[in-house]
Amino acid sequence: MSEAPESTVPEPDLDEDSAGIPTDDDYLGEPGPPLDHHAPFFVGFVGGLGVLVAIWFAMQIQAIGSTLMLIVVSLFLAAGLDPAVRYFERRGMRRSYAVFTVILVVIAALALFLVAIVPVIADQIRSLTDNVPEWLDQLQRNRQVQRLDDEYDIIDKIQKYVTNGDFAGAIFGGALGVGLAVLGALFNGFIVTVLTLYFLASLQTTKSAIYRLAPASRRDRVSRLGNRVVRSVGGYVSGAFIVAMCAGISSLIFLFVVGLSQYAVALAFVVALLDVIPMIGATIGAVIVTAIAFAEDWKIGLACAIFYIIYQQVENYVIYPRVMSKSVDVPGAVTVIAALVGAALFGVVGALLAIPTAASVLMLTREVWVRRQDTR
What we know:
By secondary structure, the protein is mainly alpha-helical. The chain is built from 13 helices and no strands.
């Protein structure tokens, strides 16, 4: 058996000091053993760095939370307008022309609202504010209310608070606060409008870019699931708008018939706006209108109470199921829980976005998790 040939690699010729340590300047020493990644110090140090990075990242997200909320709202509104774009596409119109048409319709609707509706609402709100002292006087003539007022002097305090000119200022923190609140609302509305139109114009491009992040083997299924989520969100937003319009128009007609024509437009707008909020919005709007009607005339108030009790049953069991049947499929308990959690986390906006989000999560759970479990 032949011996293995000796290595021909020349060893470096190093000078050694008295301790046997090489003194060549090019020699950097022998590499030591690798770090023990399971050592307690290493695990604790890396874990601590991870926690600090996560906290820093969460703080940055919280700092831009209001901006992210505007982006999310704009995305939901763009998804809600997408069915209108697809409607024009089905009629043979190109995507770019369909988006342009929908954008023109939205801008025209906003312009008509600002020009025609806002002055009427402002006048009627001013009329409501002017009549508050008279309604307080009527309440003061009630025996039970008069007894409480004699003891606590409630009516006079409320009347002075409303009529001294500082009512709105006290609510918003003074005249400067009112101006800043109005400017902030206008600025946020402008940003949401611009972002909505931008997302609507680039919705297909944005979806395609997101879908390309998935592996090629799963890209088709991811794109199909994503398109279904967008259609579900768009259907819910469009359906909520239709339901709110039904509530507003029916309230407008009823208030003109019942004798509250001087406040009809403002109150109908309030009902339509609040009806978008799940679960409690319609009830809040009905309570506001009924309370004002009772202050005007108890017969009108009673008629409003009866009307809204009947209308809410029609909306809950006829209008809402028919409008939402093709967009979202969420059990009643999940709807309530989602709306409560969304309102607790993000207020009114969270309540608005909770139901389509819950519908999307349920759909993804059924199509991905449950189907995978069924194949095992």
